[in-house]
Amino acid sequence: MAETIALKLTAKDFKSDQEVRWCPGCGDYAILAAVQQFMPELAIPRENIVFVSGIGCSSRFPYYMNTYGMHSIHGRAPAIATGLSASRPDLSVWVVTGDGDALSIGGNHLIHALRRNVNLKILLFNNRIYGLTKGQYSPTSEIGKITKSTPAGSADSPFNPLSLALGAEATFVARTIDSDRKHLQSVLRAAAEHEGSAFVEIYQNCNIFNDGAFDLIKDPATRDEHLIRLEQGQPITVGKYNVVHPEGSFGLKVQEGGTPIVHDATVQDPAYAFALTRLSGSDLNTTPIGVFRNVRRPSYDEIVRKQVLDAKTQATGSPEEMLDGLLNAGDTWTIL
Amino acid sequence: MAAPAKRVEQLDRVVIRFAGDSGDGMQLTGDRFTSETAQLGNDISTLPNFPAEIRAPAGTLPGVSSFQVHFADYDILTPGDAPNVLVAMNPAALKANLADLPAGADIIVNTDEFTRRNLAKVGYAESPLEDGSLAEYAVHPVALTSLTLGALAESGVSKKDGERAKNMFALGLLSWMYSRPFESTLRFLERKFAKRPDLVAANKTAFQAGWNYGETTEAFSVRYEIKPAKMQPGTYRNITGNQALALGLVAAAVRSRLPLFLGAYPITPASDILHELSKHKRFGVTTMQAEDEIAAIGAALGAAYGGALGVTTTSGPGVALKGETISLAIALELPLVIVDVQRAGPSTGMPTKTEQADLNMALFGRHGEAPLAVIAPKSPSDCFHAALEAARIALTYRTPVILLSDNYVANGSEPWLLPSVDELPDLRVEFATAPNTEDGRFLPYLRDPETMARPWAVPGTPGLEHRIGGLEKADKTGDISYDPANHEFMVRTRQARIEAIPVPDVDVEDPDENAQVLVLGWGSTYGPIGAACRALRQRGLTIAQAHLRHLSPLPANLGEVLAGYEKVVVPEMNLGQLAAVIRARYLVDAVPFNQISGLPFTAATLESMLEDVVKNG
Ligand SMILES: Cc1ncc(C[n+]2csc(CCOP(=O)(O)OP(=O)(O)O)c2C)c(N)n1
Ligand code: SF4
Ligand SMILES: [Mg+2]
Questions:
Q1: Are B254 and B310 found together in one domain?
Q2: Tell me: the pLDDT tens digits for B49-96?
Q3: Inter-residue contact B410 to B379 (CB < 8 Å)
Q4: Where does the Pyruvate flavodoxin/ferredoxin oxidoreductase pyrimidine binding domain start and stop, copy by copy (chain B) (predicted)?
Q5: Both B484 and B377 in a single domain?
Q6: Each residue of A277-331: pLDDT tens digit?
Q7: What is the mean pLDDT of chain B?
Q8: pLDDT > 70 fraction of chain B, expressed in percent and rounded
Q9: Are B212 and B268 part of one and the same domain?
Q10: In chain B, N or C terminus with fewer CB closer than 10 Å?
Q11: Domain co-membership, B140 together with B16
């Protein structure tokens, strides 16, 4: 905390001089404001924070943060951030991506970053649509979605991003909502504290091409019956219902009565977190938010760095002497 | 036993090809022979030829693996057009290589493998050893396997291990025939089988048995000697192009004082660079085997953004995947080295065969106006210097650089005069540490007037927080800009700054100083072109040779050089990619000469083509 005081940073310090150019009313504004307000809490000097993004409306994000930032190419942010993070352990590296960016063109990089457990905080702004390219369906759009590119309804089933992340061996998996600043920041906090990949899905409203996509769990009139707030050590309930583990079943179930299970994100077996992610389909009918999984596993960065450090410690001589030795290795001969 | 006296003949050069099944250890045998030859001070050039399949069925034509070594008492430029000696470990090896042998060549065959079954496998109805079809060659039938097993009868090793040692018998025999010093091979066997003393002993015995066989039997009446070549004084080591390239990258890391980050995805024939670099972590080298080529270059670029020497190594199919990220690196103006070890395409093509067909892709194969620097090594050992040069350009001018190696230089080897480390270029760079305007702001696209490079301001530097990206940037500030005049300015500036990179003038070798014909090459064709030119000159013809290492930007004097000759011929292992550039850029009627067989040019092919041009215009 001492450092926080010394740094004396505020949300304003994290605002860049660039004019924010999202559509008025876009959920991205709320996320940006929440992140900027949260950042001082990290107690990390601005110069040690880097935001790397791909392409999409959401991926404009780094331009608006007064930190280091790279707006890269479509889908590749996790790969670029991996190289940065693995070679610069002193940095706090954040990835901002969209549902198309992360799950369509960049799906491969996302799963491999999670599998490696690279020390990245990955924020996936899921608006279930391609915003920047003006409204095509995305890999998280519900089946049958009518868009410009699918006038007869989309034919493909969506990904559940959290189930996917768990399948990719993610060690930290969470979900939050653009409009709930307090919750969003609590999830960011947990993500920032996690060593290794932290995967955060943020439900984000695109009021132009997919307005109201998450109203069921946002609208005060309906949300209490559909939104499940996961809290560590607390029983999991929704409205008058309990989330239970029926005898002999593999998954979890929402039902009246029974003993609600008590949430524990630190359970090693990913089957538990996976069962939680399966409580909601794209209908959002019973949607958990919060931290689903939070376990420790050595990060790629740590392991790779240790290998290099160990090799360096065992080496003797200046780099030039070592190079001379390397060049002269093996069978050499001398001509006088 | 009293050995019959053997005649000793002096030769100035020999080409030997060791050929066998991929399980016969021919690469190792060739390597050892090369090393012994190097110890003796001959000049050497080698070329392996691997089967495309990892383990094709034993004894079949696709399973044949070979290693050719050319050595001489003068400096040589190629692994040799045609072998004078073929060591054939089985019928498949004989059949696959026979067409390359000139009449009179020596053939040493392992007769034990010439069984009915093995002959049938490769379609020999009769044994070629008996049907007279090899009459024009000097055939030396040797029961290699049974002789080896006989020598090892008392050794206690299994029959399988004994059979495996037959390559050492062959090596011993050839070492005797060409009077090679064998101490390094004995030492090598001690290292290789350090954990199996029985195998050390068995392989040494097999080697010795092969040597003695040459000395004592009447089958071999002549022994040859090849005097050391006159080579520049210094310490040498035999090296392949891929090894040299990896060492060049390590040297660049040392000389720049930067950590090296390699992102790579395995692909033939580039993987050995990844393997080699992954052994050198003590130099601060991090290697990442990425999920694909796009991630590999992405990670390298991310590391470069963070202040590392970022490198990605691949072959043509991988470069195609990396294209979008290379354009990003061009827009970001960050240093990055992209190594393309070219192979025969299109598509998967012939992964183990060579070609120079990625020049167009290197120069032009990206979206948008996306210029970068391109350089190509001319020989295996030159890969070391080319890698350093690529790193120097990338770091000094903050640009991606494509290094175009190919399968021929990557897997070929030659003696390398080891450089002294302090004489290697100093590649130290300065990161930006402070604002760069008078009013205390930091402009990420404010250029150094001399290099036209923008500041390398790495994350972690206080006060220089800034955002960069692929969207067009306003001059100096780097802010997003759609201004038409700014875009025009930035496109022209990106082009101009690459063209302004100072590269050395191209040298012309024209010893007679009155040549009418210039032969212009680039990359790995240097050896065969040079050998062809020498041969022509020895026959009293005049010809000039110029070879390009820098393909972007081209040397400033190239136009003048081209204008000085009546005829310019451009041999390439593609359909004329450099020739097209030369014609477009200098309005010179450059004549392409092309071979796209997956094989390197032979000096003889080029010699006869050039002879025709010199004599008939
Ligand atoms: C290689 C490439 N292909 C396609 C595009 C076009 N493109 C830009 S953003 C985008 C989809 C963005 O959707 P999402 O990731 O969900 O981001 P959002 O705009 O919804 O925030 C596409 C297809 C591109 N920029 N690059
Ligand atoms: S298109 Fe949608 S996601 Fe993009 S800025 Fe507009 S509202 Fe936001
Ligand atoms: Mg989207």
A1: yes
A2: 988 777 789 999 999 999 999 999 999 999 999 999 999 999 999 999
A3: no
A4: 261-477
A5: no
A6: 999 989 999 999 999 999 999 999 999 999 999 999 999 999 999 999 999 998 8
A7: 96
A8: 99
A9: no
A10: N
A11: yes
Looking at the structure, tell me whether residues B385 and B440 fall in a common domain. Answer: no
Q: Tell me the angle at which helices B144-151 and B166-177 cross, rounded to the nearest 10 degrees.
A: 100
ipTM over 0.90: yes
| Distance from Cα A127 to the centre of ligand 2, integer Å | 9
Structural domain count, chain B: 4
Ligand number nearest CA of A96 is 1
Instruction: Give ligand 1 pocket residues (Cβ under 6 A).
Output: A 55-58, 74, 98-101, 125, 127, 129-133, 138
Contact indicator for B239, B287 with CB cutoff of 8 Å: no
Q: Is residue B1 part of a domain?
A: no
Average pLDDT (A176-182) is 98
**How far is Cα A9 from Cα A12, in angstroms, rounded to an integer?**
8
> Which residues of chain A lie closer than 8 angstroms to B250, CB-CB?
323, 326
Residues 42-71 of A with CB under 8 A from B: 45-48, 50, 52, 55, 62-63, 65-71
Verify that B171 and B108 share a domain, yes or no. Answer: yes
Of the candidates B296, B418, B480, which has its C-beta nearest A327's C-beta?
B418
Residue A3 has pLDDT above 70, yes or no: no
Looking at the fold, whether B469 and B541 belong to one and the same domain comes out as no
pLDDT at B4: 57
Q: Residues near B204 by Cβ (< 8 Å), separated by ≥ 6?
A: B168, B186, B189
Pick B294's closest partner by Cβ from A67, A79, A315. Answer: A79
Question: Angle at CA B393, nearest 5°, toward B388 and B396?
Answer: 115
Domain boundaries, chain A: 2-230+265-302
In which order are the strands placed within the sheet that holds B309-314? B285-289, B260-264, B309-314, B336-342, B400-406, B373-375, B550-552
Q: What is the number of the ligand 1 atom nearest to the C-alpha of A126? A: 16
What does the block give as tokens for B107?
């053939």
| CATH superfamily name and code, A2-230+265-302 | Thiamin diphosphate (ThDP)-binding fold, Pyr/PP domains (3.40.50.970)
Instruction: Tell me the per-residue pLDDT of B156-198, one tens digit each, with 9 for 90 and over.
Output: 999 999 999 999 999 999 999 999 999 999 999 999 999 999 9
Supply the pLDDT for residue B1. Answer: 43
Instruction: Answer yes or no: is pLDDT of B3 > 80.
Output: no
> Residue B232 falls within a domain, yes or no?
no
Residue found under tokens 């029961």: B143
Residues of B with Cβ-Cβ distance to A109 under 8 angstroms: 291, 294-295, 298
Asked if residue B2 is part of any domain, the answer here is no
Half-sphere exposure of B67 (CA within 13 A, CB side): 23
Residue pair B67/B26 in contact by the 8 Å Cβ criterion: yes
C-alpha count within 13 angstroms, C-beta hemisphere, residue B280? 28
DSSP code, position B47: E
Dig out the tokens for A41 from the structure: 């809490």
- In this predicted structure, what is the pLDDT of residue B281? 98
Residue A109 to residue B288, Cβ atoms within 8 A: no
Whether B220 and B198 have beta carbons less than 8 Å apart is answered as no
Question: Which domain covers residue B62, as residue numbers?
Answer: 7-226
Q: Is A243 in the pocket of ligand 2 (CB under 6 A)?
A: no
Q: Are B546 and B466 part of one and the same domain? A: no
Q: What is the CATH number of the domain that holds B524?
A: 3.40.50.920
A18–B325: do the CB atoms touch at under 8 Å? Answer: no
- What CATH number should be reported for the domain holding residue B417? 3.40.50.970
Q: What atom in ligand 2 is closest to the CA of residue A134? A: 1
